[in-house]
């Protein structure tokens, strides 16, 4: 089983975004200040599950700029970035693109999972968040954080709260606690007002730290 074919030329944006912004502005004083600062910008997906997960692996534990450079080199190696084509790449070529030995192993394992049909890719759309996370963390190099980024950036699920995300915790510290470092329980308490749109609020918290949207 391969990945579902989606001809996506333009990024897709969430249909719920305007409603989410209205809700957040009404419920949260920080969101009331942040949301108008970023105009029409919003979350976007390019619709390719394998590419989204591969990009998240490449981006682990490195800066956004460094990740983009390595990603561009890696993505240029095969004629089309598909699981089958990644499995045909030479390890040395992948290493030359700037990937660590471990990330090469992770990307190969990801490609194997997509290529051999062990993932229920065609069922993901209808599956609850936690079931998708459980399936994804069986892949080497994918932990809960990466799975949550996938839910936000690929499926645009509206109510994901990635408490393992450093940017989210830092942004909550900055915007709600005058920079004082907060715990996960503090962050969860702040986010209670965001539901059912935690993904949207998280996106704006990220923007408050870096106005340039991150894409996967």
UniProtKB/TrEMBL annotation:
InterPro entries membership: Alkylbase_DNA_Glycosylase/TA, DNA_glycosylase, HhH-GPD_domain
Listed GO biological process terms: base-excision repair, AP site formation; DNA alkylation repair
Keywords: DNA damage, DNA repair
Keyword match DNA repair: yes
Gene3D superfamilies found in the cross-reference section: 1.10.1670.40, Hypothetical protein, domain 2 (1.10.340.30)
Keyword field contains Isomerase: no
Species name: Rhodoferax aquaticus
GO cellular component, one term: cytoplasm
Database matches in Pfam families: HhH-GPD (PF00730)
One Gene Ontology term of the molecular function aspect: DNA-3-methyladenine glycosylase activity
Protein name as it appears in the record: DNA-3-methyladenine glycosylase II
EC number assigned by the record: 3.2.2.21
Catalyzed chemical reaction(s): Hydrolysis of alkylated DNA, releasing 3-methyladenine, 3-methylguanine, 7-methylguanine and 7-methyladenine
Family indicated by similarity: Belongs to the alkylbase DNA glycosidase AlkA family.
Domain HhH-GPD as annotated: residue spans: 58-210
Signal peptide: none
Top-level taxon in the UniProt lineage: Bacteria
